[in-house]
Amino acid sequence: MEIAKYVKKELVDIEINCENKDELFNKIYEEAFKNKYVKKGFLKKIRDREEKYPTGIELSKYSVAIPHTDAELVNEQFISINILKNPISFNLMDDSSKKTDVSIVFVLGLNKPDEQLIILKEMIALIQNENIINGMLNAKSESQILEIIQQGR
């Protein structure tokens, strides 16, 4: 998969333990900022954007979220993959008045508009592939997540 080159091992967490979106976004931001993927301001913008334009997606057997924000706050493109120990409630993308319990959060840090559509198409294909999502949910290491993404199955 093309998106494999954007998945950074230091931004993959297979057992992230958070109570809510704010705590989750804090942890992701701290790691992304420490590794110079994002600029200051990213945390506030991703929170604000998620509030205004929710990214929770409910599929047949699981729910995911794909938060993202403004390109100018991203130094280097990345995809952060976070497997939650306990699901976190996100508002639905297609009906913000409803919520869904999300098990996997993919944070997109994109700064090249010409690549965004390709990446988003691949992300949609990825989240609709039950074999990939089940593999990720059962992964025992960050390396396993990377292998699953690279193999695309």
Q: What is this structure's SSE topology?
A:
Layout: E1 7-16, H1 21-34, H2 42-52, E2 56-58, E3 63-65, E4 78-91, E5 99-109, H3 113-127, H4 130-137, H5 142-151
Parallel strand pairs: 1-4, 3-5
Antiparallel strand pairs: 2-3, 4-5
Helix pairs in contact: 1-2
Protein name: PTS sugar transporter subunit IIA
Organism: Anaerosalibacter massiliensis
Keywords: Sugar transport, Transport
- Spatial ordering of strands, largest sheet: 1-4-5-3-2
What percentage of the residues does DSSP assign to strands (E)? Answer: 25-35%
N- to C-terminal distance: 9 Å
Helicity, as a percent range? 25-40%
**Unreliable segments (pLDDT under 50, ≥5 consecutive)?**
none
Largest sheet: 5 strands, mixed
> C-alpha Rg, in Å?
14 Å
Tell me the CATH superfamily.
Mannitol-specific EII, Chain A
Average pLDDT taken over every residue: 95
Tell me the name of the CATH class: Alpha Beta
Helix-strand pattern, N to C? EHHEEEEHHH
- Stated plainly, the CATH topology is called Mannitol-specific EII, Chain A
Give me the count of strands.
5
Distinct helical segment count? 5
What structural class do you assign from the helix and strand content? alpha/beta
- Shape annotation: globular
Pfam family, one: PTS_EIIA_2
Domain PTS EIIA type-2: 5-152
Protein name: PTS sugar transporter subunit IIA
Organism: Anaerosalibacter massiliensis
